[in-house]
Write a structure and sequence with these properties.
The protein is α+β, with helices and mostly antiparallel strands and 101 residues long. The chain has one domain: Beta-grasp domain (Ubiquitin-like (UB roll), Roll). It is 14% helix and 22% strand. It has two helices and five strands, in the order ββαβαββ. It starts with a strand and ends in an 8-residue tail after the last strand. The structure holds FE2/S2 (inorganic) cluster. FE2/S2 (inorganic) cluster (FES) binds next to loops. The site of FE2/S2 (inorganic) cluster (FES) has 12 residues, from loops.
Length: 101
């Protein structure tokens, strides 16, 4: 199974392919901000995918529209609730968490 590494804590967790990144984060005990129920409405789950951007699911219109409204978004930005883990390991950074609120 692919390995998810979470920065800045450095926690790692094995995750089944197809799991959303937010679901995986919840299993690690990382603090997760108030959220919209994984519907790409709140932007609370904004993360940066530092490694493995090509292995995760492609961005869909709803996620793209929500990210457009968040300050500080960059080329590595994704919404963790909308992004599914692919076959390879990835590293994400939580510094964008709650920035979309
Ligand atoms: S949890 Fe609200 S946009 Fe991801």
């Amino acid at each position: 199974m692919p390995l998810l590494t979470i920065l800045p804590s450095g926690k790692t967790v094995e995750v089944a392919e197809g799991t959303t990144i937010l679901a995986a984060i919840r299993t690690t005990g990382e603090k997760v901000p108030p959220e919209c129920g994984d519907e790409a409405k709140c932007g609370a789950c904004h993360i940066f995918v530092q490694e493995g951007r090509k292995t995760v699911s492609k961005m869909q219109r709803l996620e793209n529209e929500r990210l457009d409204a968040i300050v500080g978004v960059g080329s590595k930005s994704r919404l963790a609730c909308q992004t599914r883990i692919g076959p390879d390991n990835i590293t994400i950074e939580l510094l964008g968490f709650a920035s979309g609120l």
